[in-house]
Amino acid sequence: MSNYPKMLINLVMTIYREPKQAGQSLLRSVVLRKFGAEGMSENLQSLEAILTKLGLTSFEAKVYLTLLTQGPMSTPKLARTLSKHRPQVYTTLSRLSEKGWVEKLSGKPSLFKAVDPEIVLEVALKDLEKSVEYLLRELKSISGKTREERYGVWILKSFETLVARAEKVLEDAEIDAIVSGSTRFVKRLMDSIVNAQERGVNVYVLVFTYKGLSFDRKMFTRLKKVKRAVSGDLISLADSEVGVLIKQRRVYSSVEYGLVLEEPAVIDYVLHDFFYRWTRSQTIRDEAVPLPTCFTMHRFAIIEAKKYLRKGVRIGAKIRGLNIDTGEDVEVEGEVVGCDLNMKTGLANLSVRVDDSTVLVGGPDAVIEDIAAKYIELYEI
Q1: Is 311 in contact with 339 (CB distance < 8 Å)?
Q2: Helix ranges, the chain (H)
Q3: What global pTM score does this model have?
Q4: Most-buried pick from 52, 105, 154, 183 (CB within 10 A)?
């Protein structure tokens, strides 16, 4: 339903509720008042197009709208109004009656009336929802049988699909996530962000406003980590595995394409850029991260560990990643004894005491460290 122009659906309801006016076409009076003469034909065609998406043929939609706006009619009168042959109109009315879109009053001649739009739209949308649920189950069952590329950068050209994909990224997040965007974009993702937080996901949000628009801090009271940036792109990225990147424009939805990111090297670059902007942005909200907590984004793990160390809290860390020297998977656990986060040199690592030695833990691009971490769990000792 979100993809149907709400203005046009509201028009159907307005036309239906408008009192009869003698001496003029009800449809014409309402549409002229709302859209003007130039927009009347175009918007009626749009209404018919929407109704076809709900299961009607183009002519069925035209018949329904005619009865809705002109009131009850007999078959002969409706045929004259639409300049169509009676048999075609009668057959169409019979189909509409079977589908529940028109009511028939027996008599000589029989009269046909459009059913209340609220009723037919509710029923039609429920049927559509069932069809979509069935289609989704079937498509998912089929997709598991095909070979899936694990890594890549994919292009999407539908803005609404990109935003829905951004929401899905947050809905599937398990450990940590970042969001960057305009106030409107962040507001669109708000419920998905809050739900992720409630599942224990650490979500970091950068928000900016376009020139000339106001900024209201109150809209972010449901979020735990928010900073205000000067500008940026529209980003939703989770667990260092998948993300959506949309090049921002002055007009919210005026984008030609966006990217779905599943390539580790590109994701690491986006995370690095996001973190750079995070450290230079104005703090709006910064709630403490409760322990234990987990990260795939090592720079944020370092920030949170550093805060606890400054408070005098002893914290431990469990790390999974790669041994820099051998390239093999490794797991270590010990006490965090130091945090290095130097924006000038680019160094970002944890010093973890393991048995009698100290291990340096960096991120995916670690070179001088001992371990390139994929997963970091922090807990209080």
Answers
A1: no
A2: 6-17, 26-53, 58-70, 75-82, 86-99, 117-143, 159-171, 183-198, 264-279, 298-310
A3: 0.70
A4: 183
| Residues 321-337 pLDDT 10s | 999 999 999 999 999 99
CA distance 240 to 267: 7
Q: What is the rounded radius of gyration, in angstroms, for the C-alpha atoms of the chain?
A: 29
Whole-angstrom distance, CA of residue 21 vs CA of residue 13 = 17
Query: Looking at domain 293-380, does it have CATH number 2.30.30.690?
Result: yes
Side-chain half-sphere CA neighbours of 45 within 13 A: 5
Domains in the chain: boundaries: 6-121, 153-286, 293-380
- The predicted-structure confidence for 60-92, as pLDDT tens digits, reads as follows 999 999 998 889 999 999 999 999 999 999 999
Torsion angle of alpha carbons 300, 303, 309, 315, nearest 10°? 0
pLDDT of residue 144: 60
Peptide bond into 264 cis (omega under 30): no
Say if 153-286 and 293-380 have the same CATH topology. Answer: no
Closest CA to 113 of 159, 148, 164, 78: 78
pLDDT band at 5 (very low <50, low <70, confident <90, very high): very low
**Helix, strand, or coil (residue 21):** coil
DSSP string, 321-339: EEETTT--EEEEEEEEEEE
Q: Rounded to whole angstroms, how far apart are CA atoms 266 and 243?
A: 10
**274 to 231, 246, 284, 302, 371: CA distances (angstroms):** 11, 14, 16, 15, 23
DSSP helix/strand/coil, 127: helix
Q: Give pairs for 145-149: CB < 8 Å, separation 24+.
A: 149/262
CATH code for the domain defined by 6-121: 1.10.10.10
Q: What is the fold, at CATH topology level, of the domain defined by 153-286?
A: Endonuclease; Chain A (3.30.870)
Distance, CA of 47 to CA of 117 (rounded, Å): 12
> Does residue 17 surpass a pLDDT of 70?
no
